[in-house]
Design goal:
The chain is an alpha+beta fold. The chain contains 8 helices and 7 strands, in the order βαβαααααββαβββα. β3 and β4 form a beta hairpin.
């Protein structure tokens, strides 16, 4: 939507009753409160703010339900064969499921937009002119060399999860960990996967025969 010019980072979005009351991780938006697309994206990427997620979904598609339809269309386009979205914020819902492979495909597609890492690499920031503090739920952003994101997630049914991305010497890797018992286990597993990738793989330029 940003690339097509349908929306802009400077656009102001008004929080709806539905977004304000969505629950889960949030930045406590109030119905009628206004926030820019830029700040809402920051809240989603850094704080996993569900209220900000629903605000953006409604702004792009008119309603959360319509946005979820767009999510499923995009999932099909990306070849995410074992995914079905029922909620834009990723909370436990009937018929809402995915796999590590599909989340890796989704993460790779997201990373094709270079702007996203401006948000996913933030460790600490603020909103509302400094009144609201943000601390990234992804500790790897601060403690793992080359980390570029990407997103954590925790629900009762899915467990403690992460799609972790990192780049070193031009080699970009994604590690997806689902169903961990704790945040510590999640980050250790993701770090181990990324360590294995960086130790085992190297970036090479391959040219066809002349």
């Amino acid at each position: 939507a940003l690339d097509s010019g349908k929306i802009a980072l400077t656009d102001t979005v008004t929080c709806s009753e539905a977004a304000a009351g969505f629950g889960g991780s949030q930045i406590w938006l109030k119905p009628g409160e206004e926030m820019t697309v830029d700040d809402l994206l920051k809240a989603v990427a850094v704080q996993s703010a569900n209220d900000a997620t629903v605000c953006l979904a409604e702004y792009v598609a008119g309603s959360e339900e319509a946005f979820v339809q767009l999510m499923n269309q995009k999932a099909a386009e990306l070849g995410m064969e074992n995914t079905h979205f029922a909620c834009c914020a990723g909370l436990d819902n009937e018929g809402h499921y995915s796999t590590a492979r599909d989340i890796a495909l989704m993460s790779r597609a997201l990373l094709r937009y270079p702007k996203i890492t401006d948000y996913t690499t933030i460790w600490m920031d603020t909103l509302r002119n400094g009144a609201t503090s943000l601390v990234n739920t992804n500790r790897l952003v601060r403690f793992y060399q080359g980390a570029t994101g990407l997103k954590t997630g925790t629900t009762g049914k899915a467990g403690v999860c992460i799609s972790a991305s990192a780049e070193r010497d031009g080699l970009r890797l994604i590690a997806v960990v689902l169903g961990s018992a704790s945040g510590k286990e999640r980050f250790q597993a993701a770090s181990a996967l990324l360590d294995y990738g960086f130790a085992s793989c190297a970036l090479a330029a391959v040219y066809p025969d002349a």
